[in-house]
Design a protein that fits this description.
Shape: globular
Distance between the termini: 25 Å
Largest sheet: none
Strand content: under 5%
Mean pLDDT: 90
Number of strands: 0
Structural class: mainly alpha
Number of domains: 1
Order of helices and strands: HHHHHHH
Helix content: over 70%
Amino acid sequence: MPLKSEPKRGTIIIIITFGFAIALSIIPLPSKFTMFIPSWPALVLIYWCLAIPHRIGMLTGFIIGLLIDAYSGDLLGQNALSMVVISYLVLSFYQRIRISPLFQQALTVMGLLFLYYLLLFWFDGLPLATEDAEKRPLQYFVRPIGGFVAWFGMFYLLRGIRRKFKIR
């Protein structure tokens, strides 16, 4: 008797979490607060790469990055490449990161987000300078701290979703 393959559970839920993360990135906020808002799609990608590395990987990061590039109007591929680098690093070290305490995971996430923003900063330096070029470097160095703080809530929220819907 052949074994029946079970359909992968929770694929729609994972897509919805990425959709909410992208929606959070689109919401306009006062300029005072935008400096501290982390990249929500990057945080969600890091979580899912840690939680289910056999299902979420570099291709997912590339697609999410292209979606971010498409709606933000940035250089096509800069977020995609940055997300691929982040997902590659998480997938390479996910076993080490998973066994770490939550505070140490948050520090690792802050380092990954710093690398993400460093790559974006480098890509922004390639084309001609924009009118708000003076404010941007500070954002690239402050946003990973916002990601460090947001990781605690993001971790517990997405873990609760993963357990409720039995995503494996």
